[in-house]
Specification:
With 69 residues, the protein is mostly helical. Helix content is 41%, strand content 6%. The protein has a single domain, classed as Arc Repressor Mutant, subunit A (Orthogonal Bundle), CATH 1.10.10.
């Protein structure tokens, strides 16, 4: 996925101090990556955070691993 197409990743000063978040929600990219690193599956994240969508998680991973960010 091209970093330019990460339309679900937002950075707004009023939301989590402009940390990269998912769709202006208070769910940060770093929280998603951290949960996955600690053994959570994508399915567990989607269950625990029902307002997240699979594409949100995939874009968070792409953002986190991109050298452009």
């Amino acid at each position: 996925m091209n970093v330019d197409k990460l339309d679900r990743i937002t950075e707004a000063a009023a939301v989590m101090g402009a940390k990269p978040c998912i769709r202006e929600m208070r769910i940060t990219v770093s929280m998603i990556v951290g949960q996955l690193a600690n053994g959570y599956s994508v399915e567990q994240l989607l269950t625990d955070y029902p307002h997240l969508e699979r594409e949100d998680v995939m874009q968070a991973l792409t953002y986190a691993t991109s050298p452009d960010t």
